[in-house]
Amino acid sequence: MEFKDYYQVMGLQRDATEAQIKQAYRKLARKYHPDVSKEKDAEARFKDLGEAYEVLKSPEKRAAYDQLGKGPRPGEEFKPPPDWASGFEFSGASGARDADYSDFFETLFGGARRERGFASGGGFSGHDNEHHAADHHAKVLLDLDATLEGGARILTLKLPQIDGEGRLTTQERTLNVQVPKGILPGQTIRLAGQGAGAGAVRGDLYIEVEFQPHPLYRVDGRDLYLDLPVAPWEAALGASIKVPTPAGTVDLKIPPGSRAGTKLRLKARGIPSAIPGDFYVALQIALPPATDDKAKAAYRAMAEAVPFNPRTSLGV
Amino acid sequence: MAYEGLLAGEIFEDFAVLSVDELSRLCTVDRTYIIELVEEGVLHGSGSDATDWRFPGAALRRARTALRLQRDLEINLPGVALVLELMEELGQLRAELAGRR
Q: Which of A90, A105, A223, A297 has the smallest set of CB atoms within 10 Å of its CB?
């Protein structure tokens, strides 16, 4: 079993005061809260933080934890001492609501939680309707193609499950799901009857959807955006150029006199729906490098032939 | 683990119209909490009073986010409402910024 250094998780010294522990928790909770954070590993960090705080904020648990010292030497397995927690009573009402703790925590403090029964739910539950208590919620990152084409995807979900001893654990569940065409980030896939429970009281599974960033396209509502580099002469003179779209490559006409930032619309080639989104191409003007003599000569010839001051708006 | 058969997903927001009781059951909170979210302006129900309020499906995710913020960050309801508004604004600004790059 892996030893958890709860002080390290919270960035605290081992002699931290209760006030410092609370302060550290609040600060880090704001930083790593998965609803707010942009950090990559926010979810895992927040989970570790919640667990560390659960132990360190409780004087009994903290005292018991402190007895373990700093854990085993690197590379050694941690085993709780045989006389673990004798003389401690982990009784304080804790926020062990739907938290899912590590094996380390469960081994050391899980017993107390089981005796208390974890379905108490703090201040937020109290409405444990038998049917809807069996609903499950999960999150998933989909690729953009899933919404454009609405294909089958193998989704691996982390779901809270109650094991035979009444403990809350996370279990991976793999489902083959027909992703509904046109679903947007921020929306929810419902799979009726795929929650917990059995028979008539089987709950539903709600999967919150976000998209993985696409290498080419940016999503804005139902619309898709592509930044399209064009050569200066293509923008100035107009051109017909090949553009990748989700439905395949298309020929796009660039009107003469186009400027950087010009947006060209391909109607109804965005995310599908009764009123489908559009596909926008934003022009970016790419300059050819003046690395050889020929290119340099061409630039010089243009400078002579075209009187052009790009800074007139600056008054210079 | 063996895969189960292909499951047809439906977009919850496309069809769901929720009453206060349905929303509170889905969030496993007391209905008074949903009413507080409405009073704070976090959720908007159509209808004159709480018994006939109807919420769009998107309210589920919003209410759950509010609940998590309040529980995990120990902030009060006006604070949650402010965070949600600022996060929305941040999302719009990020989208706009991505469009300008």
A: A297
